[in-house]
């Protein structure tokens, strides 16, 4: 389970993070001229520096899940119960529709699993398409060894080479469906007996190009 950060440690981490950000912001602006990619890398480096200082003291048990971190990177660092820093995808923001919840229940009951990773924007969009309630019903496997509860060996055994990837069907007659998919496509491919009307889905996130992330070697 994720360890809870004490209030004092949270204040210290916030202080360290803000201090490092304050001292590095000017240099970053001068050298990178507000390039988005440089900004994300700068933030990741800043967070790593703050965490490194914080965990050097005995009472530090987790990295703070700051909203700014998850907003910029799409994930945030925490410490697992072995004291190792791992990464968790940011929380899903959309509420699930009734039809998405019914589809998720059907997929779960029929052994469907989705293989994903915390850093992939297509995995993030797939989570948002389902919404928070429906996604919590599904079986999902984290494939990155740096991800929280990561199971890279299972993903390798299943032949997963991109994210997200859906495994449909039975153990003896399974099928892999790669890339983020509209829920209506998943409903049809899985044999869902109900109807799924995409027009009923509200606040759907925009497309972000090709529908999958390639496996990091």
Name some characteristics of this structure.
217 residues, alpha+beta, four-stranded mixed beta sheet, two-stranded antiparallel sheet, 43% helix, globular, disordered N terminus
Kindly summarize this structure in a few lines.
This protein has helices at 7-32, 36-54, 67-73, 98-109, 121-130, 132-137, 152-157, 183-190, and strands at 75-79, 85-89, 113-116, 139-142, 162-163, 165-169, 174-178, 213-214. It is of the alpha+beta class.
Distance between the termini: 28 Å
How would the global form be characterised? globular
Poorly predicted sequence stretches spanning 5 or more consecutive residues: 1-12, 15-37, 52-65
What's the number of helices? 8
* Average of per-residue pLDDT values: 77
Write up this protein:
The protein is an alpha+beta fold. It is built from eight helices and eight strands; from the N terminus they run αααββαβααβαβββαβ. The protein has a four-stranded mixed sheet with strand order 4-3-6-7. Strands 1-2 form a two-stranded antiparallel sheet. Strand 6 and strand 7 form a beta hairpin. The protein is globular.
């Amino acid at each position: 389970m994720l360890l809870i950060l004490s209030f004092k440690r949270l204040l210290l981490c916030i202080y360290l993070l803000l201090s490092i950000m304050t001292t590095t912001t000017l240099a970053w602006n001068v050298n990178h001229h507000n390039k988005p990619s440089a900004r994300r890398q700068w933030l990741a480096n800043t967070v790593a520096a703050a965490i490194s200082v914080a965990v050097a003291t005995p009472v530090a048990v987790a990295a703070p899940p700051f909203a700014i971190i998850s907003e910029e990177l799409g994930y945030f660092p925490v410490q697992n119960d072995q004291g190792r820093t791992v990464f968790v995808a940011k929380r899903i923001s959309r509420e699930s529709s009734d039809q998405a919840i019914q589809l998720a229940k059907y997929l779960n009951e029929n052994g469907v699993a989705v293989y994903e990773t915390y850093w992939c924007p297509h995995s993030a969009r797939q989570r948002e398409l389902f919404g928070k309630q429906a996604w919590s019903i599904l079986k999902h496997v984290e494939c990155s060894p740096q991800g929280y509860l990561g199971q890279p060996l299972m993903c390798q055994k299943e032949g997963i080479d991109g994210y997200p990837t859906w495994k449909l069907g039975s153990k003896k007659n399974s099928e892999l469906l790669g890339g983020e998919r509209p829920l209506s496509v998943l409903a049809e491919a899985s044999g869902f007996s109900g109807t799924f009307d995409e027009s009923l889905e509200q606040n759907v996130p925009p497309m972000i190009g090709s529908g999958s992330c390639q496996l990091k070697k």
